[in-house]
Design goal:
heterodimer; A: 252 residues; alpha/beta; Rossmann fold; 4-stranded antiparallel β-sheet; 8 helices; globular; B: 483 residues; 11-stranded mixed β-sheet; 10-stranded mixed β-sheet; 11 helices; 23% helix
Chain lengths: 252, 483
C-alpha cells in the first residue's frame, strides 16, 4: 500500500530524514518509535504533503501512485490521512461545518453525492459514540479552546469520518491521560480492517499497550536503525533510547 | 514563510465579474465644474428656487474648502475639473420614462445581468428596488404596493417634485451642506438617489433597496439618499453598487441621511462592490461617502451594516447621533482591502441622550497589497448619563504585503458613561491552510471558510436575502488571492 524508498528530506536547509525505507501492506499496523529530534514528525509531515519540507531524494509510492506528486488535499481524498500532533485552531469556523466540508470533499473526489446536513449529522453521531466525544464540542470553532485530550479525540473523529486506507497518527498519545489514551486507542482499533493500514508514530511505548502493532521500527537520526515485532517496543521501554544512541545498534 | 507568501501570491489574481459596460446613448455634461453646471443640474431636475440656492451656497463654500488628507490612504490628486458631473441614459431631448415599461430595454438588461431584475415578472420577491444609473434613477419597483401602506419610496428627484415639504424639512439636517469637503461637493452637484418616508406606526412590508451603477466614463456619481422613519415605524433598506472596469479612477461622493423619530427603527445595509481597480492600483472607484443617522426620538434605533469589498479607496464612517433618550446605535462592518485597495472606514457614535447604547463590530480583512484602517469615534456627551458603548475591532491579514491599522478615538464627558474597546489582529496562517488541505479542503475553500467564519457576526446582521449574497461576494473578491 505504502512504499517509502531512500527518502531524504529536510526543512530550511537542514537534513532531517537521511534515507528512510519502509513498506506497509494492507491489514498491517506499524509503529515508529524514536527519541526527540529523530525525524518522526518530519516523516508524518512529508507524507501529508507539507510544502515547507523539501524532499531531496527518494520516492514514496502509495497505491501505485507517486505520492509526492499529489497535492495535500488529493492525498487525503485518496485515503492517506494524518492525525496531527498539534491540531490547529481555526477560530470562527464551526466544527460540524468543517467536518462536513472535509467529508464532502472526499466524497466528491470519489464521485459520490455530497451529504446533506441531516445525513451528515447521522453519520457523525455514530462516530461520536464510538469515541465518547462530547457533542457540545461540535458546536464550537475547530479545535478552539479544546483541551489537549479533546483535540486528539477530535482528530480520531475526523479519521473515523474520512475512513482512510492509510492512517498516520503523529504522537496522538502525547498529552493524554490514561483514560483518554484508552478511548483514543479503542477508536483506532475499531477502525482497523483488513483493507486498511495504520502507521503509529510515538515517543512512548504505552500507546502500544492498547494498539498492538505488527511491526515496530526505531527511528534515530533520520534513519530506521532497527525493525522488529511488537516485542521491540517493550525492549525499548526497558532499556531506553540510550540503548540505541550509545551506538550498540547502529547499523548504518 | 516562503510557502506562505507563494500561496498567497497566487490568491491575489481576482476577476471582477461586474466590469462590463453598457453602450447606451447618454446625455452627459462635459467635464468641469462651475456655477453654471450647478444651475444646469438643478434646471434639468426642474428644482424649486430654494433648492438651487442651497446648492449654490454649498458650491461657493466648497470652493473655499480643502480636500481632507488625514485618512490613511494615498492617491494622486483629483482633478475636479476633469470629472463630468451629470450623465443620464437616454437622448437629451427625450423625456424621462414615466414608468418601467418605457425604460430602455438595454438598461433593463443591464440590471438583469447584475442580478437585479426590474420588470414585473422577474422582480425580486419581497424587495422593492430603486435603480440608479449614473446620475439618475431609472425606475422603482413595487411602488403601488408600498403606496397602500403610505410608504413613499422613489427617486430623490421625484421626491423634490412630489413631496417638497418633506425634502425641505429634512434635507441637510443630519449632514449639513457645510459638513465636509465631499459632503459639500455632493450638496452642490447631487443628481439623484433614493428617498424613503415611512409613516407613523408603519412597519414597511418590503425590504427597500437601491442599486447604484456607474456606467459612463469620467463621470462622478453624487447621489443623495434621505430616509425618514416617522414615530414607531420600521424599515430595512439595502444598497448595492457596481461599476465597469476602467483604467482611470472614478469619483463617487454620496451622502446618506437617516432620521429616526421616537420608537422608530432604521436598518441600513450596504453591499458595496464598486470596481476595485487592478493589483497595481490602476483604475477603480474613489468612494468618499458621508453617511449619518440621527436617533432623534426616544427609544429609536439605527443600525448600519456594511460589507465593503470594492472601491480603490474607501473613505466612509457611517455614524449615529444618539440624541433621543434610550436610543440605540449599531454598526457592523466587514471591509476587505485586497489587490492595491485602501480602506479607511469606521463609525462615529455620538451619545447625547441618557441611557443611549451603541455597539460597534468591525472586521477588517487585508490581502494582497491592501491597506485597511479602522477609524472610529465614540463620544459621550455631558448629558449622556449611563450611556454605554461596546466596540470590537478585529483585523485579519492574509499574506505578508498587506496592512491593518486601527485608530480608535474615545471622548467621555459624563462620568457615568461606560466605554469598552476590544481589538484583535490575526493572520491566516500557513498551518491553518495546511490543516484544511490535510482534511481534503482546497486552499481557496479553506481561505473562504476562515474569512467567512471571521465575518460571521456581521453577515448575520444582513437581511436574509443578502447574507448569502454577501458571503458569495466575499468568496469572489478573494478568489485567486490564496491559491
Amino acid at each position: 500500500m505504502l512504499e517509502i524508498k531512500n527518502l531524504k528530506a529536510g526543512v530550511e536547509g537542514r537534513d532531517i530524514l537521511k534515507g528512510i525505507d519502509l513498506t506497509i501492506n494492507a491489514g498491517e499496523v506499524h509503529a515508529i518509535m524514536g527519541p526527540n529530534g529523530s525525524g518522526k514528525s518530519t516523516l508524518a509531515q512529508v507524507l501529508a504533503g507539507r510544502e515547507a519540507f523539501n524532499v531531496a531524494e527518494g520516492s514514496v509510492m502509495y497505491k501505485g501512485q507517486d505520492l509526492l506528486e499529489l497535492a495535500p488535499e488529493v492525498r487525503v481524498r485518496e485515503g492517506l490521512f494524518l492525525a496531527f500532533q498539534y491540531p490547529v485552531e481555526i477560530p470562527g469556523v464551526n466544527t460540524t461545518y468543517f467536518l462536513r466540508a472535509a467529508v464532502n470533499a472526499v466524497r466528491e473526489h470519489h464521485g459520490e453525492a455530497a451529504l446533506n446536513a441531516v445525513d451528515f449529522l447521522k453519520l457523525m453521531r455514530e462516530k461520536i459514540e464510538l469515541l465518547q466525544l462530547d457533542e457540545a464540542l461540535l458546536k464550537r470553532s475547530v479545535n478552539e479552546g479544546f483541551s489537549g485530550g479533546e483535540k486528539k479525540r477530535a482528530e480520531i473523529l475526523q479519521m473515523a469520518l474520512l475512513d482512510p486506507t492509510m492512517a498516520v497518527l503523529d504522537e496522538t498519545d502525547s498529552g493524554l491521560d490514561i483514560d483518554a489514551l484508552k478511548v483514543v486507542a479503542n477508536g483506532v482499533n475499531q477502525l482497523k480492517r483488513a483493507d486498511n493500514a495504520q502507521l503509529i508514530i510515538t515517543h512512548y511505548q504505552r500507546l502500544l499497550d492498547y494498539i498492538v502493532p505488527d511491526f515496530v521500527h526505531v527511528l534515530y537520526d533520520g534513519r530506521i536503525v532497527k525493525s522488529g515485532g511488537k516485542e521491540l517496543a517493550h525492549e525499548l521501554e526497558e532499556k531506553g533510547y540510550d540503548w540505541i544512541t550509545n551506538g550498540e545498534l547502529q547499523t548504518a | 514563510m516562503s510557502a506562505d507568501t507563494e500561496t498567497i501570491d497566487r490568491f491575489v489574481a481576482q476577476e471582477y465579474k461586474w466590469g462590463f459596460y453598457t453602450d447606451i446613448e447618454a446625455d452627459t455634461l462635459p467635464p468641469g465644474l462651475d456655477e453654471d453646471v450647478v444651475r444646469h443640474i438643478s434646471a434639468k431636475k426642474n428644482e424649486p428656487e430654494w433648492l438651487l440656492e442651497w446648492r449654490l451656497k454649498a458650491f461657493r463654500l466648497w470652493q473655499t474648502m480643502e480636500e481632507p488628507h488625514w485618512p490613511q490612504v494615498k492617491y494622486d490628486p483629483i482633478d475636479y475639473q476633469a470629472v463630468s458631473y451629470y450623465s443620464a441614459p437616454g437622448a437629451k431631448d427625450k423625456d424621462r420614462p414615466k414608468s418601467l415599461d418605457e425604460v430602455d430595454p438595454k438598461l433593463l438588461e443591464t440590471y438583469e445581468k447584475l442580478g437585479v431584475p426590474l420588470h414585473e415578472r422577474a422582480r425580486l420577491a419581497g424587495v422593492a428596488v430603486d435603480a440608479v444609473f449614473d446620475s439618475v434613477s431609472v425606475g422603482t419597483t413595487h411602488k403601488e404596493e408600498l403606496a397602500k401602506h403610505g410608504v413613499i419610496f422613489c427617486s430623490f428627484s421625484e421626491a423634490v417634485q412630489e413631496h417638497p415639504e418633506l425634502i425641505k424639512k429634512y434635507l441637510g439636517t443630519v449632514v449639513p451642506y457645510t459638513d465636509n469637503f465631499f459632503a459639500t461637493l455632493n450638496s452642490a452637484v447631487f443628481s439623484d438617489g433614493s428617498f424613503v418616508y415611512i409613516p407613523k406606526g408603519v412597519r414597511c412590508p418590503l425590504e427597500l433597496s437601491t442599486y447604484f451603477r456607474i456606467n459612463a466614463a469620467e463621470t462622478g456619481q453624487f447621489e443623495r439618499t434621505l430616509i425618514i422613519a416617522d414615530e414607531g415605524s420600521h424599515v430595512s433598506y439595502l444598497e448595492g453598487c457596481t461599476a465597469p472596469m476602467r483604467d482611470e479612477n472614478q469619483l463617487h461622493a454620496a451622502v446618506v441621511e437617516l432620521v429616526a423619530l421616537g420608537d422608530a427603527e432604521i436598518k441600513y445595509s450596504t453591499v458595496q462592490n464598486w470596481y476595485p481597480g487592478d493589483e497595481d492600483g490602476n483604475g477603480g472607484i474613489y468612494n468618499f461617502v458621508t453617511k449619518r443617522g440621527i436617533c432623534k426620538g426616544a427609544r429609536s434605533k439605527i443600525c448600519w451594516t456594511q460589507v465593503e469589498t470594492g472601491s480603490a479607496i474607501t473613505w466612509k464612517y457611517p455614524s449615529v447621533i444618539l440624541r433621543g433618550d434610550d436610543s440605540v446605535g449599531e454598526f457592523y462592518s466587514v471591509a476587505l482591502a485586497n489587490l492595491a485597495q485602501q480602506a479607511d472606514t469606521g463609525t462615529k457614535m455620538i451619545h447625547l441622550g441618557k441611557n443611549t447604547r451603541s455597539t460597534v463590530i468591525s472586521k477588517g480583512i487585508s490581502a494582497g497589497k491592501g491597506q485597511n484602517s479602522y477609524r472610529g469615534l465614540v463620544q459621550m456627551g455631558k448629558n449622556a448619563t449611563n450611556a454605554r458603548n461596546y466596540t470590537q475591532c478585529d483585523s485579519l491579514l492574509i499574506g505578508s504585503r498587506c496592512g491593518a491599522h486601527t485608530f480608535p478615538y474615545i471622548e467621555v464627558k459624563n462620568p457615568s458613561a461606560q466605554v469598552e474597546h476590544e481589538a484583535t489582529t490575526s493572520k491566516i496562517g500557513e498551518d491553518q491552510i495546511f490543516y484544511c488541505n490535510a482534511r481534503g479542503i482546497e486552499t481557496q475553500d479553506a481561505v473562504n471558510m476562515i474569512v467567512n467564519g471571521f465575518c460571521k457576526e456581521v453577515f448575520r446582521e444582513l437581511p436574509m436575502e443578502f447574507a448569502m449574497e454577501a458571503q458569495a461576494l466575499m468568496d469572489v473578491s478573494l478568489e485567486g488571492s490564496v491559491g
